[in-house]
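Blinded run. Sample ID left blank on purpose so nobody reads anything into the name before looking at the predicted structure. Input follows.
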Amino acid sequence: MKHILSSLALLIVCVFSASAQSDMLLYNFNAISQSLHTNPAMPQQTKVWVGLPAISGLSTHYHNSGFSAIDIFQANTDINANLRSVTAGLDASSQLAVSQTVDLLGIGFSLKKGFVSLGATQHINLTMDIPYQLFEVMFSENNNSITQLDLSTFDLEVSNRTAFYVGYQHRFLDEKLTLGLRANYLIGQQHAYIERSNVSLTNDSTFTIEGRSDILVRSAGASAFEADALEPMNIAFADNTGFSFNFGAHYQFSDKWSFSASVLDIGSITYNDYTRNYVSDSEFEFRGIEADLAANDFNDAANRAIDSLEAGFNFQEVDGDSYSRSLMPRIFAAANYHINEKHTFGALYHSRIWNGEAFHDLGVNYQGRLSRTFQFTAGYSIINGTMHNVGAGFDLKLGAFQLYLMSDNILGMVDYGGLQTTNFRFGINLTFYGRKEKKDKKKQEEAKTNTPSQTNNESNNFINYF
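Blinded prediction complete.
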């Protein structure tokens, strides 16, 4: 079991070493070209953009629908009472999800009635159900009455992959309809998931837990770090490959209304390198451990519990065969009302599907375009049942450089002890807009009348591209 935990910990540490993601605001914010990550058909304001390597897009998302840190570790409170209170609020929908995305490189440019983009991104994801039934056995006030525990529905998955993409969007119907497609070539560096978790625990009146287990955990990549001599290139370009596709559409229904939708991450990865299975098929008894959590005995208690459970589950390590795993599909749908070219209000629905279960988000947002040099957005979201997500973001152009920053929950970034959902997206691009339409029209009119200001306009053409 310790080897399983160490393999998972290797990926989890990578996840938590980042800073945060903002898809609810990002989707409608086409001031930055990273909006193509959420909809490959999203019309772009820029004519050309170049993502600076590794800093054009840094994002991470954290979500815990079960509890926040302050619920357990609040100062001057009884941690045992806190754990009982947290346990009472958990149910089958409680989930922990953490993800990081880094734009390694990117470039995009307009092409007649289309727009082309290509680049590479790094994705690290952790998704797990919070084992609420196990919490009930361990911390509930009436745990003696809980005699049967079934963990067959517990799921956990960790992954680290690189995606090399090429995307294209094209405008139809007098440029009212835009359709987009992005194709991704995937390389999976590390991966682990629970394929089977048939665990039954029976608690009797003597505080003895009788357990039966039939567990299969598949992994790939993590065992490469146990080798005496690491092969970084073999790890980075492992023979764990696959393809995925993103589809999108955007329709300008009228001057006031527009609608859009996208489906992302339709595909899978086949894992061949450094595969390993962890198998448990046993019967055991667990008599618990003695611990005083109020006396800061938490770490020692956890270690002793792991040692005891490791002996009981008796995991066996087996060199694994190749296996395939689908990505987590995501769906977006949005409607926008354009007051004018500078002010827009929108409503957004987002869903992600994992192991056959859908998780839903809803949001409303506003986009303001004061000028080409400064645009901003703000919104409110309900993310998988968590409320109080007030977000904001902006993009600022300094010549050819574009700086952007946004979060779906800026309050959570400040009150980090009580947060359940937060994210953060930051990046720097090189962007080029082309000539402003008003300038071009003025220049054409002046050319007809031969006004002397034509020369001055020509000298400003270079500036108008930014």
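Unblinding after everyone has recorded impressions. Residues 68 and 101 are 23 Å apart (CA to CA).
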